[in-house]
TrEMBL record:
Keyword set includes Membrane: no
Source taxonomy: Bacteria, Bacillati, Actinomycetota, Actinomycetes, Bifidobacteriales
InterPro entries per UniProt: Homeodomain-like_sf, HTH-type_TetR-like_transc_reg, HTH_TetR, Tet_transcr_reg_TetR-rel_C_sf
Domain of life, per lineage: Bacteria
Gene3D superfamilies associated with the record: Homeodomain-like, Tetracycline Repressor, domain 2
Listed Polar residues bias regions: 1-11, 204-222
Record-level Gene Ontology MF annotations: DNA-binding transcription factor activity; transcription cis-regulatory region binding
Region (Disordered): 1-27, 202-222
PROSITE patterns with a match to the protein in the record: HTH_TETR_2 (PS50977)
DNA-binding residues: 47-66
Biased composition (Basic and acidic residues): 13-27
All copies of domain HTH tetR-type, residue ranges: 24-84
Protein name as it appears in the record: TetR family transcriptional regulator
Length: 222
């Protein structure tokens, strides 16, 4: 009786999907190991041998992808570390702002952790600069897009200083993560509640005063 060889038991599409899953898991291990070494001991400590030891991925496998250490660093810096969350239907209110901030926390945690964001952004290393361009800036741009769409929908102030809001939110996120060993579950909502009075659009026809713009200095009375 003729039997089907094990490697032919699945349709070609299934075998290809299996290979892609294995490759994806390997990519994740290499990213995590490289970032861990670079953040804890510096970029100079990243070697193929050390990445292999930390990740558990065989050196032969790594060398099939990267010929040397520099190719490894370049490849990791350009790897998709974050899977963007679909926020296209997020509401433009306190709950929506909290949801958008929480999504950013998740994205940073998936990449290398919120606590490491400040270290990555402040480093003068070419490797970390590439990580900023390919990982951090896209996350920041997605948050900016949310606030811009909210202003266009007349839910947020039309003169909203998006860059300032982003600096305030991301800076607070990184500081909170450093102080509390992570971002507490309730923090995104607390930040959203803080921001809302300053960015909420006035109802049409309402000429009342708007809450103080956090981008403008407070006026003092002599």
């Amino acid at each position: 009786m003729t039997t089907t060889p094990p490697d032919q038991s699945l349709p070609s599409e299934g075998r290809e999907m299996g290979r892609q899953r294995v490759r994806s898991r390997t990519d994740r291990k290499l990213v995590d190991a490289t970032m861990r070494i670079a953040l804890q001991r510096g970029v100079d400590a990243v070697t193929i041998e050390e990445v292999s030891r930390i990740s558990g991925v065989a050196k032969t496998t790594i060398y099939r992808r990267f010929h040397n250490r520099q190719e490894l660093l370049d490849g990791i810096a350009h790897t998709e570390m974050v899977r963007p969350l679909d926020m296209s239907h997020t509401s433009f209110d306190v709950e929506g702002i909290a949801e958008r901030i929480h999504a950013a926390v998740q994205e940073f945690d998936e990449a290398f952790g919120v606590k490491a964001v400040g270290q990555v952004m402040s480093s003068d290393s070419g490797f970390f600069h590439s990580v900023v361009v390919n990982v951090l800036e896209p996350v920041r741009n997605r948050i900016a897009d949310y606030f811009k769409r909210g202003a266009q929908a007349h839910k947020f102030r039309p003169d909203l200083d998006v860059d300032f809001i982003l600096d305030l939110t991301l800076g607070g996120m990184v500081a909170t993560a450093a102080l509390h060993d992570g971002v507490p579950q309730e923090w995104p909502h607390r930040m959203a509640e803080f921001l809302w009075p300053h960015i909420e659009a006035l109802p049409q026809g309402n000429t009342g005063s708007q809450p103080t713009n956090p981008t403008q200095p407070l006026q003092t009375v002599a």
